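Q: I have two molecules that I believe assemble together. Could you output structure tokens for the complex as a whole instead of separate predictions?
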Amino acid sequence: MKDERTRRQFIRDVSLLSSSAVLGASMPWLKAMAGETQAGNGASDRVRLGFVGVGDRGRALLLNCQQLENVEIAAVCDNYEPHYQRAVELTNGKAKAFYDYRKMLDEADKLDAVIIATPLHEHAHITIDFLNSGIHVFCEKSMARTLEDSKAMTLTANRTGKILQIGHQRMFNPAYLKAYERAASGEIGQITQIRAYWHRNNDWRRPVPKGRPELERKINWRMYDEYSAGLMTELASHQIQVANWFLGETPTRVMGSGSICFWKDGREVYDNVACVYDYPKGVKVIYDSVISNRKYGLEEQIMGHLGTIEPEVRKIYSENPPPAPGFLQLINNLEKDIFETIPIGGASWVPETAVQYKGEYLVEDYQYDDTLLEMEGFVLAVRNGRPYPGLLREGYNATVAVLLGLQAMQENRIIEWPEEYAWKKNTELV
Amino acid sequence: MSDWIITRQRRRKELIFWGISFIIAFLMNVYSIARFNTSWSELYSQLHIVLLISFVLYALIGIIRLIIFGILKLIRKMA
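A: Yes, here they are, computed for all two components at once.
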């Protein structure tokens, strides 16, 4: 990695966090990562990566991997010509380029691992083919379009013993790691509810070349039910993964409602979703996402009886914040007495609006790019030939949860987590 | 244009006024600590606020002094 200081700092932080017994057990991937051997300069240490799918996300992952030490981008693959050409340019023609991943499979012996960033419905069969060929796989989130495919991917990874890591970069994000540490220490008390949302204000479309309408479904695959579960698999999966991780549980059931409310442009996936996930012991995760208003952006509000954590803004808020200095309290009181409106009639009720306490930062502003750190983690795992415990479980459980959420919305009923997809109850999955 | 001269007595007087303002602000801080039951370390940790308030008080006293000065001058003129 070019920014050696950043990497060293992160590894040091990881080592400190994972040395705690509680955290080591809850975040086994950290413990493993902290103990991994770093890159040497020898040819045997070089990790040869292939990329399948070099669209927006694939490109970002490729650029990240180009910053890693002793990593060779050996092959790239995309069946969409502009992305294919871009991949060739990004690798200066040094990587062998393919239009069909099956051709890339034929030369699997020249690869150690592949990064898959294709449309969602293609994740499963490509992942399974590479795992069966003895290649480690990093697959972007969500795992797959269906529950069956997600389970098949997991089983294949377990059977082959190869690494299958799903792209949930928040598990490598220092703010989230610190947030988890503070929550696990009991600082925010018993977590009873997590409110998570992701709001944007755009149509979520990518431009289709003029005169090529046949490319609409290929380019805007996120709009079509056959290829994607829309907001649930593309956005919610990150936040439901965080909820599962912080609660140490998976939902028992989910209810929800979705609609195409604003962007009535022929899309098949909802542009407005709301789900309530029930967790054991009465805990709730309330999720919503819209793409017609961005005022509140995205956040996971992790609420306990002693405090709240908002990891996206790196903040923790106590329910009983430390009092302001006495002198400031006096001045504030004087100011209120002089300038505040005095009600002389009407309602005597004072609205219980949000507490104005600004909280404290979990971590100082940092230069870490969690995707870069996640990729480095994957490369380290490949170099050492061992998957990080816990990571696949997180990816799997998040995907199952969001797909069940979609099912609840589409079928307009409460969906229980099916036994056959429960990680804990299926030893074949673990 | 005539020269503006701030005499030694005037400077001394103004310093006394500001000193009184500072003492009032400091006592306000003591009162606040006792009233809101906060830490006595605020006696020094909040000195910057005390200093700020002392200047605000000094300015308020200045306005009052100007008004009194104006009224007295008016009375003298009328007498």
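A: One point stands out. Residues 43 and 70 of chain A are 8 Å apart (CA to CA).
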